[in-house]
Amino acid sequence: MHRANAARRQLDFTRLFLAQGLAALLVALLGLWQAGAEGAASALLGGLVSLLPSLYFVWRGLYRGRRNVMSFYQAAAGKFGLTVALFVIVFVTVPPSNPALFFVAYVAAQLTHWLSPWLVSEGSPPRT
User: What's the average model confidence in pLDDT over 57-82?
Assistant: First the structure.
């Protein structure tokens, strides 16, 4: 039973990550239409800066080791640190040619977390 629930959660988190990627791709298409290939590349970088720390959080907080409050705090701290590091790496090594599209894609991918109650479900609610 535990394995079935874990597989269901993993599948549902996959849906959340697909929604994040779709949000970034939509902004990238908008960037391609408005600013060309450089705008699309900036938007894709913004989407990656959002998606990679989220993947780390789920891996660290849910699928590695024990599930307790301390592991979630560590996963959240790691996600924050990874986000800061990715921002620094992107802006130092490959500065986006269109920072506005970079941040729009980042925010769009982050806002998909508001959809998580519909995308990540623990199963049906108990009947009363």
Answer: 83
